[in-house]
Amino acid sequence: MNRLKYYRQKNNYSQKEIAKYLLITQPSYSNIETGKIRLNFDYANLLATLYKIPVSELIDDKNAIYISDEDFKILVKAKKVISDIENRIK
After folding, report:
1. Is residue 74 part of a domain?
2. If we measure between CA atoms, which residue out of 58, 48, 39 comes closest to residue 79?
3. Is residue 71 domain-resident?
């Protein structure tokens, strides 16, 4: 079982519910979950937020996300901003 399916089932969501959350169709989500379509960063980030896990937990050999060093630096900064906002909300 891949990680996307594992976390979806662990959190008691159907593919249809996750697809609606991502604003895509259930067949499109199914293709992501089965590895027919590569998981992009936007969806990985949304799912990680929903499941309250790091994005890295959703990545396995079938769903790898590859980004440049420059994009990684931007993501690190974005993560800090999001963390700061979340801490202010609490």
Report:
1. no
2. 48
3. no
- The DSSP secondary structure of 25-42, one letter per residue, reads -HHHHHHHHTTSSPPPHH
Side-chain half-sphere exposure of 86, counting CA atoms within 13 A: 8
Q: What's the CA gap between 40 and 38, in Å, rounded?
A: 6
Per-residue pLDDT tens, the chain, 90 aa: give them: 488 999 999 999 999 999 999 999 999 999 999 888 988 889 999 999 999 999 888 875 554 555 667 877 888 899 989 999 988 987
What CATH number is associated with residue 32?
Answer: 1.10.260.40
Q: Has residue 41 been placed in a domain?
A: yes
Q: Is residue 15 part of a domain?
A: yes
Global pTM value: 0.65
